[in-house]
Sequence to fold (337 residues):
Amino acid sequence: MRETLEKIKKEALEALSSPSAQLEELRIRFLGKKGELTAVLRGMGKLAPEERREIGELANSVRQQIEQRIEMLSEQQKAAKLDAKLAEEKLDVTVPGVGVKTGRFHPLALVQRQLEDIFLGMGYSIVDGPEVEYDYYNFQALNIPKDHPARDTQDTFYITENILLRSQTSPVQARVMEKTTPPIKIISPGRVYRSDAVDATHSPLFHQLEGLVIDRGITMGDLKGTLEMFAKRMFGEQTRIRFRPHHFPFTEPSAEVDVSCFVCGGTGCRLCKGEGWIEILGAGMVHPNVLRNCGIDPEEYSGFAFGLGIERIALLKYHIDDMRLLYENDIRFLNQF
Ligand code: DAH
Fold:
């Protein structure tokens, strides 16, 4: 038995002399429940008592030596592993970083945000309306009956006889008035659709911003003051505005509104085509029929409305001469804003 133990010890320490020894495997082989040392200890019952003590001590010392050796190697192996990992994961702080590419706003989004800022600053709220709209709100409620010529000029995409893609943001006026007891002070930006062929100044999808104010005693003076303030904020302090008589079915009186050219200041240049003025929006006093259609008493309340094209403002502001550039998503173009 003594020889067996010496043999186990010799074999174990030999196997454990290599720094890369498979420790778990060797532990099971020598010290495990079915291991070689355990087998020897099991046979000890048959020994005489004095022999048993002697062999027992020897067996324990062999076990301890093997355990110590395994423990030591295990520490060494862990340390070596960590060193290798540290060497491999070494961080070179002088390597140039990977730049984070941030996107930017589309020129139309920039203009819309600026418009919203200006009107929010004047106490307006922003409301949304559906792009798929009833004929009723897009036309009828706005004093544009069936067979009215205005329906021809706005080549409209119909979905059914009564449902269409809105051709203007004005239907939001009717929706808000129906639901709200004045005072009302809102803007509503959004997409509109007309079946126009694409060219430098037309697109079947474009954007408008609608404005509506209703209260007791609202006058044309309020409209003019509001639009003047808007024009100055949008195009610069020196900007003047001018009203030209016009016709819209939903306002009376109606006007087209020009701003003094913000490039030449009014003396005439290429941008304003020598006019000194640039048309930017339509406006007027809300027609009594429209108020009535939406359940507001025209004897008690009055108001003004206006509508502008966001593309048009963007083209003017950024001196873009072809509307198609706004929709082509060419990064080289979009990166300039
Ligand atoms: N909806 C008109 C258009 O698309 C623009 C417009 C004109 C809106 C006058 C208004 C307004 O609210 O009062 O041409």
In short: The chain has twelve helices and nine strands.
